[in-house]
Amino acid sequence: MSECIFCRIVRGEIPSKKVYEDEHVYAFHDINPVAPVHVLVVPKQHVDSMAHLTAEHEAAMGRLMVAAGQIARDQGCTDGFRTIINTGRVGLQEVYHLHLHILGGADPLPPMLTR
Ligand code: 5GP
Ligand code: ZN
């Protein structure tokens, strides 16, 4: 069995605050939120990062993107939100199970990157 922390969350071995689940996708609140809404959306099938995606992941990742938009609306992000996928060393990825961050709240978010 995978020791990957997000695989363990998907399997229910580590508790999480679930907001959505379907055949391909699991979504839960980030444990250390940086915005009023901070949800992580992951494919149930383990893949290390966006750089590791292949054609076999197309259906799951398509489902993930559609679900993310629905989850954002369900979380009250009716006037916009931000999605981020950090990848690899340069992207400062911390958890090597691909995940999409949904960030939002009542007020506009800070600039994505400072110049
Ligand atoms: P990354 O930097 O890899 O894009 O983001 C990893 C995210 O996972 C961070 O925002 C961090 O707070 C979150 N995270 C790490 N471990 C856990 C955990 O055990 N449970 C939850 N819900 N979030 C986690
Ligand atoms: Zn995993």
TrEMBL record:
Q: Which Gene3D superfamilies match?
A: HIT-like (3.30.428.10)
**HIT domain location:** 5-112
| Signal peptide (UniProt feature, chain positions) | none
Q: Where is this motif: Histidine triad motif?
A: 97-101
SUPFAM superfamilies found in the cross-reference section? HIT-like
Q: Which residues form a coiled coil?
A: none
Q: Tell me which PANTHER family the record gives.
A: HISTIDINE TRIAD HIT PROTEIN
- In Swiss-Prot or TrEMBL terms, this protein is called Histidine triad nucleotide-binding protein
